[in-house]
Every structure is written in structure tokens, then in C-alpha cells.
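Let's study my pick:
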Amino acid sequence: MKRLFSILFLRFSVVLFLMLGLSSCQRAENGNEADIIVYGGTSSGLAAAIQATRMGKSVIVLEPSSRMGGLTTGGLGQTDIGKKQAIGGIAREFYQNIRQHYDNPDNWKWQDRSEYKDGGQTKTEENEDAMWTFEPSAALSVFQQMVNSENIDIRYNQRLDLNEGVVKEHGMIVSIAMDNGEVFQGNMFIDATYEGDLMAKAGVSYTFGRESVKQYGESLNGVQTERATHHQFKDGVDPYVRKGDPESGLLKNVFKEAGQEGSADKKIQAYCFRMCLTDVPENRIPVEKPTAYDEQEYELLFRAFENTDLWPLFIMSKMPNGKTDSNNYGCFSSDYIGMNYDYPEGDYETREAIINAHKNYTLGLLWTLANHPRIPQKIRDEYKKWGLPKDEYIETENWSPQLYIREARRMVSDYVMTQHHCTQDSISADMSIGLGAYTMDSHNVQRYVTNDGFVKNEGNIEVGGFGSYPIDYRSIVPSKEECRNLLVPVCLSATHIAFGSIRMEPVFMVLGQSAATAASLAIDSQVSVQEVEYRQLRKRLVDDKQRL
């Protein structure tokens, strides 16, 4: 009897909350109320807002920065996709719109369309209606057109108050406050940020770092020195300030040891900037030596060159108009290994310092490769050809404002996606809201000294060979006891290694659309997000061309 009363009371609370919320939205005078509040104008957040609008719901997108689109407009133009067939819905619309953008001859300023060839997983097939490689400015233009067509309300420079920013009643978020004092109210909330701040401040359980191999019976989690064969130093690179002298101390950010194999830690896989570079002289700005340049940052790079012939230093994926999406490659590259551990739980000042340190490191690396006498001449000659495009990121001195936050917080809900869901060797999600398809991928996490006295990287995992797999609805909703009107499509409930496969921009768009669909259905049925009927959700997702 007590259980029945509890269930009825909870259902009454949800109905009352939604009824009052809808009423307040109807009489909202200050414009800060909506059916659905999306915190984070990432690709996932924009997909969520578009879907909510199409389902007849009012929506406000709160973007902490001054630019929408997250990493999709921030330099990641070589789409990490796994299998194109796994992507449907609004995500596929975006890539179809990219194709239409480049079908227009006016959008080829620095290169003839016939000269451009994409490759690898993103290669555009004959008669394909989508395109998977693009410039940052093209992605921004396409997203802007998509949100304009739906008249979506996006508010920029809106950062959650990390101290008292979330008000909850009866297990539901009532309002959220920004650090500028503005308050926003809604019936449903979606945290589409890479950091999961709204989720965390709403009292939802989460974790960060790596779980042990034992916690979920995974072979690829935790410390992984034995598997770290890719992007690795050759034997012989000395880790000490003075070569051969342990008493001189270790070079910056090299640890004495890695930790026990398979053990858990709170270290984070490396971040980097996905660099948009160009070798078109008319559109190229030379990379200057940073004011805060520190030669010691690159000592391991110099020693690695002494030990072997390093090439390439980046993955230079070709984008249209003579540009690149340049990503980490090799033992020493754009990944600023070990310099992001404080990011997930950091306040805004801490995160800003980490972002600036990554920018300074990366610009310093580009300058070093093109100019430093300890870099081989043939390498210097090659990298002197490259610079920053004049027509990208004009508002931020031609440099991306979006650091690649590969992983920060991850929600811990009643359902956790694991390695076994990716490989489907022993379990498969039965409430699919989208598909993952990418390799289980973790970048390096740390540098350490081996028993032989050499420096090595640790943490890189690249394991594929499995097909598309379903991502469960329950992994984007918190435990019912913690919050009943919040969905988390980016920092979802997954282990470190499962998240390494899920964390791709097309998949985040898919999950954002599915989250908004569930939020809209919850409003219509006056139930919590945990009580949304899956058959109804699945039907709407299929009708909207999601691939499950």
C-alpha cells in the first residue's frame, strides 16, 4: 500500500509540475521560459532544439560561449563516423546540407571543386546525397540556416552559475540561473554540454576518469600500458631534465610510474585543438612564436627526433578550399597529454587557464616544427608552408574557440553502457535511441618512466572490428530518484571505454534529437522522462528517420 501511495504521489507531482510549468510558459513576459531548456549549443544541443521545435514545443538554447555548434563548427571537419549507414534523422540532414553547401560553386573560393578529394571513412561515394568533410565556417553557416528555418531562440554567453545555479522541487528542476544573474524556467531540461555542468549541479550521480577492468568486467578500461603500442615513443628517449641523471628530476608532466595495469584512476584522455590550417598563400597567416613560449615543453619532441625519424607529426585531413582538419598523430603531437586532469571538475577560471595553456602549447608546437634548429630541416621546410586561414574564426584571431573535450564527466544512471554493449558479446541495449559504430577509442592519458628508464605514453586504445550497436534510452536519463525532468545526451551514462566509441559528433546529434523527442513526449503525457513509453518513443524516432 505504501509503495502504491508513493507511486501515485510521484505521478501527481509530475502532472502538477508540468501543468504549472505550461501555464507559466504561456504567460512568460521576460522571454526566459520555455517548454524545453537546452543547456549547450553543441551539435547535440542544436539537434535537440530543432527536434523540439518540430514537435511543437517552445525551446531556448543557452550556449556558454559566443559560437554555436561545438566541435562540429570548431575544427572537426573529418567526421568520425564509423559507418555512415548508422546515421539518420537531423544528423543526416546536417551532412546532406553540407553537400548542398558545396554543390554551390560560389563556396569554392580557394580551390576548384574538381580538385578536392576526401578520403578514408568520409569518402563521398558516387550518387551519395551527403558530405562528411567541411570547413568550420561551412558547418557554422549550415547550422545557422537550420536553426533560422525553425526560428530557434539561442542565447549566447550564458554560463550556468556553478554555485547556486539549479533550483529543484520534488525531484525536478524548476529553474536554472546563469552567472550573469539571468534565470530560465522550463518543464524539461537537456544538458548537451561536453562538461555536464547542469547534470552535476542538479545532483545527478556522475564519474570521470577510468574505471578498473574489474568494475564492469571490461578488458580495455583502466591503466593500459601493455596495449599502448600506437602513438608511442621508441625505446631510448630519456625522461630526465639532464639526460641520464634521475637526480635532475623528470621532464614536465612525466610520471615516475603509470599505475597498476587495469586499475582505475581520475586521469583524463588528452585534449587537443582540431587545427584548421591552410597552405594557400593568399589565405594564409604565418604562425608566430607565442609570447609565453617555453622551449622545455618540446624537449621530448627534440629527443624523439634524435632517436628516430618522426613523420607525420599530425593527421592532415584535407578539407575543401585548401584547408585541413589537423589532428594528433604519433608519440608527440597536438595532444597535450596530462594537462587536462582538472578540467572536468574545474570552475570557469580553471578551465579557461587549461584552454589557454592548450592553445599556447599548440601554437608553440606549430612554430617549433617550422623554425626550431633542433627540428630536421626537411620537417621545418614542410611546416613553413602551413598557417592559419584568414577566413576562419575571424572573431577569435583565426583560432578555434573550441578545445576538443574528448571526455569530461559521465553520468552514472541505472543503466551504464559498457564495452560489452559496443561489441555485443554478452549484452545488447533493448531500448535503442540511436546507433554507435566507431572504434572504441581512447587517446593517451599520461606519460611515465619504464623500468628501463625510458619515457612512454599510456592510455591509447584503438579496438574496432564490431558492427553498429544500439545505445539505450536509459543511458541518457538519470536515476528517477535524482532528477525526473533532465536528459543528458552528451555526458551520458557510459564507461570510459564505451564512451570512447559513442563520443562522436554525429552520434551526439542523434542522441540530442532522441532526447528532445523523449522530452516532448514526456510533456505531452505529463510524465517523467523515466516514464516515457518506449514503444511511443521508438515509433516517433522511426517516423523521423532515426536509425535504431
